[in-house]
Amino acid sequence: MKLEASGWKIGSVDEFLELSQEETEFIELKLSLSQNLKERRQSLRLTQKDFARMIHSSQSRVAKMEAGDPAVSIDLLVKSLLALKTSKKEVAGMLPH
Amino acid sequence: MKLEASGWKIGSVDEFLELSQEETEFIELKLSLSQNLKERRQSLRLTQKDFARMIHSSQSRVAKMEAGDPAVSIDLLVKSLLALKTSKKEVAGMLPH
DNA sequence: TGAATATATGTCGAAAATGACATGTATTCA
DNA sequence: TGAATACATGTCATTTTCGACATATATTCA
User: Fold this and answer.
1) What is the pLDDT of residues A47-69, one digit of tens each?
2) What residues contact B8, with CB distance under 8 A and at least 6 apart?
3) Residue A78 to residue B73, Cβ atoms within 8 A
4) Which of B73, B82, B89 sits opposite A96 (nearest CB)?
5) Residue B71 contacts strand C, CB under 7 A
């Protein structure tokens, strides 16, 4: 999984070139939601633009969500999934490895 | 479940006194994480103050997290749970109804 | 091919979330 | 009881995330 390529910071103040287990799990969790969101949108034959209108957001933000951009919150990802009629159980199913 | 008591807005511009299914599910999801976080912290015999230090936050913010304050993000709740060595599978188990 | 459509990326001011602090209220226990 | 400890609540300046926009790059398809 190319975390580096998604713009996730690799270096930090405390650790140089190393992500803590906790940080890694957090990022993986978000990427799982991102990927599932993209799959769901596509399987519904929605364009990013149309989906953006559904959630009162913008095409560029949808693209960032799906790209796993670090500057997108889990809150927005979850709200987006719920807007696609994803059940809580389905959201839960996206989390475990 | 007393959503109103937790400070969640009941009225909005579009709908007066009614939460959409989507909004309700989002709030319930957050409250589940809140409650589980509180239980986990308590079972580990950690004070809010001590836990706050662990996650580089403050006692007041921990209190707000556990109270289900709307102004607390899922991101912070998830990071907090992960700091308590909660596995992704365990987080997933908190979500379904 | 090339126009139309779809997606990716960078930037901005506005809005929301943050840690910190002060202070109020419960709870504990000697 | 009352002091000590734990938790709740309100506010504030700073940081982060937001929708929006411009524009670059991919993809589709006639």
Assistant:
1) 999 999 999 999 999 999 999 99
2) B27, B70
3) no
4) B89
5) yes
Asked if B55 and B84 touch (Cβ cutoff 8 Å), the reply is no
pTM value?
A: 0.90
For B76, nearest residue in chain A (alpha carbons): A74
Please check whether residue A89 touches B, CB under 8 A. Answer: yes
Spatial distance between the Cα atoms of B60 and B69, rounded to a whole number of angstroms: 11
Tokens 């230090």, residue? B53
Kindly tell me the number of DSSP H helices and DSSP E strands found in chain A: 5, 0
Instruction: Please judge whether B22 and A96 are an interchain contact, meaning their C-beta atoms are less than 8 angstroms apart.
Output: no
pLDDT of residue B18 exceeding 90: no
Per residue in B48-93, pLDDT (tens digit) is 999 999 999 999 999 999 999 999 999 999 999 999 999 999 999 9
Domains of chain B by range and CATH?
20-92 (1.10.260.40)
So what's the pLDDT on residue B80? Answer: 98
Residue A11 CA: distances (Å) to CA of A7, A17, A23, B69, B75: 11, 5, 12, 32, 20
HSE on the CB side for A90, CA within 13 Å?
13
State the greatest distance between any 2 C-alpha atoms of chain B, in Å, as a whole number: 44
Residue A73, token pair as written in the block = 């919150």
